[in-house]
Amino acid sequence: MFILKKSSSISQIARLQSPKFRQAGSNCTLSFWYYNYGPSVGAAELKLLVDGLKQPTVLWRTYYNEGNQWLKAVIQLGRLPHPFLFSLDKISLGFYEGVSAIDDIRFENCALPPPALSCEGPNRFWCRDTKACIDSLLLCDLVDDCGDGSDEGSCNPDLQCNFENGLCNWEQDAEDDFDWIRIQGPTPTVNTGPLKDHTTGTAGGHYLYLESSEPRQFRDQAVLLSPLFNPSGSGTCVFRFHYHMFGKEVYKLSVFQRTVSNTKGWLLWYKFGNQENRWIRQTLFISSSKPFQILVKGTVGDGFTGDIGLDDMSFLGCTLYRNLPTISTTTSGTSVPATLPMNNCTEKEFVCRASGHCIQMIQKCDFRPDCSDKSDESACVMEVCDFEDKGLCGWYQPALEQMSGHYSVLITNTFQWQLGRGANLYPEQEQHCPLTDHTTCTEEGWYLFADSSNGEFGHTADIATPVISLTGPRCKIIFWNYMNGSTIGSLEVLCKSGNKTSKLWTQSSSQGPQWNRAEVFLGIRSNFQVIFRAKRGVSYMGDVAVDDITFEDCSPLLISDKPCTSEEFMCANKYCIPKNNLCDFVNDCADNSDESPSI
User: Fold this and answer.
1) Amino acid 73: pLDDT
2) Which residue pairs form cystines in this protein (predicted)?
3) I need a surface site. Which of 69, 192, 313, 483 has the fewest CB within 10 A?
């Protein structure tokens, strides 16, 4: 079917109308090939007209000459329970010269699921009237998959939201840069965002969207907070939602889970870049041993064609909770117990939490547990850290605590250390951030990295240990580092004691796409901190990562009640050390008597 005409009549419309259809299933799509060529060929649009709705819904548009070629259009229709038809309008304003044509119109997956004689299995649901057998994950997801509404029957309204009457029990985060917007029909900017909602499939339905036009800036974030949920077993709580990411400058949509209210949480899922003009369903299985909350975060791209849409968000197998705890920390990034046991300790002594026993303060954080409950080592850096439990093992970021007052509170657009893994990388990052960790050598393994997509050239990010009281003569720190990218800055290991900071190790520029081992000798030191300092290069193509940080042989010397054996040497201060350590240029005795020329 084609239009071929030269005319100067004003406001001409050529209309091609479809037959009327009774209904469409939830996976229905319409596709066709079109041709729109000529110096003044004008626009064309496809409209959906639904019985009972006065306002038509625009499903597709072409605005201008698209060259001497056939192009394919694919339009997502989705579930349409009422009779409907289509109108293809060719519009000419003023002078019209060109050829417009359409061919190969095709409907796919538009029928409702067929009836079944039986529907057995724990993950299946038998529809009440249509007798279709569907996946149980389709229950209570705000989509009538059965065709009779029975899969959306006995559902808890507190666990689902289609945004037709507001945000339900979701909330806008007060700590982000701007808010999600509730809207009907297309977003204000052409060639980005949805034309219709997902719930009704029409311009009359509501959804949320992220506006990427000014005054928004690149990497501005809008965060939506779910209600709070009780702990859930492995995969028993399911989160379903539909997202729309259409536009050349669409950036990122992420989902986080948290168990503490003033934290960023950890990443469950993300999607990056243009996903075409369609609503996409996503299902996430959530496990948590603690009460939790879900955060949906949209991030603005570098331009105004980056709108992101959200609709039909629902939970299955989850139950609502009251309030999450908050984190309260000291400047060392570790929590302080509210009460101590009865004790007779002085201010210069440490109180063991379980027994009330007193030990010298120098024995706290010295890599040797002196309390029976090991409480003297509980608020310290861990001897071995592989980050696999999504914790920082006592390491903390001093600059962030000064900015936030709380540990782990999300601070955006700052060059800082954070946990990451290959499975969470978006395409741009794969060239300059590790695809696998060092511990497990998989994309699921975690590591610590300084994200160079934030900050500016020359900015530094520090991550430090709490104060270490005392170490032994052979103490060293071993770690693995990954420094690959065209604009790598540097990584340094520093020792800070009081107001004095000294550099122990440094590496700069790209070291190749692999994990490299590093070893830094510490020896005998007291009341000091170890700091990893990353320095940002000239661009975002230069993340620095570390993994498997180990403090080896760091516990201080211990005076034995027994005499030294024949294989040991007694130092002048009564410590016993192996005779193999004599005259090896290392102060193993802590008083240099093992290196004396008189031995």
Assistant:
1) 94
2) 140-155, 365-380, 564-576, 571-589
3) 69
15 membership: H or E segment, kind and range: strand 12-17
- Decide if pLDDT at 267 tops 50: yes
Q: What is the pLDDT of residue 518?
A: 95
Using CA atoms, how far residue 518 sits from 465, 507, 515, in Å, is 18, 10, 10
The secondary structure element, H or E, covering residue 535 is strand 526-535
Boundaries of CATH 4.10.400.10 in the chain?
Answer: 559-598
Look at residue 327 and tell me whether its pLDDT is greater than 70: no
By percentage, how much of the chain surpasses pLDDT 70? 90
Q: How far apart are CA 44 and CA 71, in angstroms?
A: 14
Instruction: Copy the structure tokens of residue 104.
Output: 């190969």
Beta strands in 213-328 (DSSP E): 221-229, 232-245, 252-258, 266-272, 280-288, 292-299, 308-316
Rounded Cα gap, residues 269 and 274, in angstroms: 16
475 neighbors 551 (Cβ within 8 angstroms): yes
Q: Which two tokens stand for residue 416?
A: 């800082």
Amino acid at the residue 419: L
* Assigned CATH for 369-400+412-552: 2.60.120.200
Q: How is the beta sheet containing 43-50 ordered, strand by strand?
A: 12-17, 84-92, 43-50, 57-62
Please report the sign of the dihedral spanned by the C-alpha atoms of residue 332, residue 337, residue 341, residue 342: positive
Structure confidence by residue, pLDDT tens digits, 581-593: 888 877 878 778 8
pLDDT for 91 beyond 80: no
CATH for 12-108 is 2.60.120.200
Q: Torsions phi, psi of 585, nearest 5?
A: 65, 15
| Res 296: pLDDT | 97
pLDDT, position 107: 96
For CATH 2.60.120.200, the residue range(s) in the chain are: 12-108, 157-316, 369-400+412-552
Enter the tokens of residue 85.
Answer: 């038809």
Question: Residue by residue, what is the 3-state secondary structure of 329-377?
Answer: CCCCCCCCCCCCCCCCCCCCEEECCCCCCEEEHHHCCCCCCCCCCCHHH
Quick one: pLDDT at residue 407? 37
Inter-residue contact 170 to 214 (CB < 8 Å): no
- Where residue 113 falls (left for φ over 0; alpha for ψ -120 to 50; beta otherwise) is beta
The CA distance from 87 to 402, in Å, is: 61
CATH class of residue range 157-316: mainly beta
> What average pLDDT does the chain have?
87
Q: What does the pLDDT look like over 467-506, one tens digit per residue?
A: 999 998 889 999 999 999 888 899 999 999 998 999 999 9
Q: What is the rounded distance in angstroms from the CA atom of residue 546 to the CA atom of residue 447? A: 6
Q: What is the CB neighbour count within 10 angstroms for residue 481?
A: 23
Instruction: Measure the CA–CA gap between 321 and 293, rounded to whole angstroms.
Output: 9
How far apart (Å, rounded) are the C-alpha atoms in residues 501 and 117?
Answer: 76
Provide the pLDDT for residue 411: 46
